Each structure stands twice: as C-alpha cells, then as structure tokens.
Amino acid sequence: xxxxxxxxxxxxxxxxxxxxxxxxxxxxxxxxxxxxxxxxxxxxxxxxxxxxxxxxxxxxxxxxxxxxxxxxxxxxxxxxxxxxxxxxxxxxxxxxxxxxxxxxxxxxxxxxxxxxxxxxxxxxxxxxxxxxxxxxxxxxxxxxxxxxxxxxxxxxxxxxxxxxxxxxxxxxxxxxxxxxxxxxxxxxx
Length: 189
Hints:
The protein is mostly helical. It is built from four helices and two strands; from the N terminus they run H-H-H-E-E-H. A hairpin with a 3-residue loop joins strand 1 (about 125) and strand 2 (about 130). Helix 3 runs antiparallel to helix 4.
C-alpha cells in the first residue's frame, strides 16, 4: 500500500477524528455566524438579544476549544499527502488557506472574549460555566477587539468560500480524490 492507497490508486482520507471535528466546526461556524447576524438585528437590551449573545459567545468558545484540540490532534497525527496530480500553486494555496482558517477560528473567539471581558460583560459557556475576566475593564481594548472581530468575520467569509471552492473544484471538476479525503461517511482511512 502506498501513501495514496491500494493498487486502485485511492487517495487516503483524513482520520475519523479530524473528519468529525472538521464537520462539527463547519456546522458550528454556520450557527455562530447566524447568531451574529441575529444579534445585529435584535433590539438592544432585550432578552432575545441577550440570549443570542450568550449562544454566540458559547458557540464561539466551543469552536475555540475544538480548534485547539484539532491543532493538537493534527500535530500528533499527520494528514495524508495530497495526490501527485495537485500542482505546486494548489498546494501553496491550500496550505495558506488552511493556516489562515486556523488563525481565524482561533483568533475570532479570542477577540470576542477580549471584547466582552474588556467591556465588563460576563462571559459564560451556555450559562453553565462562567469564564472570569482575565483583564480589567478597558473601553479602548474592547473597541479594538470588536473591530478585529468584525474584520475577521469578513476574512472568515472569504477564506471559507475559497476553501469550499477549492474542495468543490477537486471533487466536481478534477475528480482527484482530494474532496473525498474529508467526507464524513468515508469508510476507509
């Protein structure tokens, strides 16, 4: 068996843990973005907005924890190599996009937390576990953190779209097995 599978030439897939965490984070990202939009639409100082904020922060912190787990898991469990048909520029774009998505999915929840803590707002995970403020109230820091968070939102849209477009290109146009490596119902790993 080679790095690319059996004699059939099948490309190896990511392990089950990385696939599960990938799709869980993808689903949570859709939820956290939807909640962020709901917060923007909800009138200030209402129970609806407060609840949406609680859920947005909680899902964001869950994404942070999953991303840290994913980074640690990936460090200990190398990803399967790309097939030889993937060109050098595609490899560079893939690595860069993945690196930036890791940075964004770790940085965005951190910026959100800094914004809330520096503004003096309580932060908890689903109202069950309170996270103490790790900094004093600082309006200037809160403003910087929310600006970073808001700019990061658009960067997430751009790089997630690029990631999805690349995956679809490999799956629907090139048919080289790259997309299939991350599909959740893959039987071989």
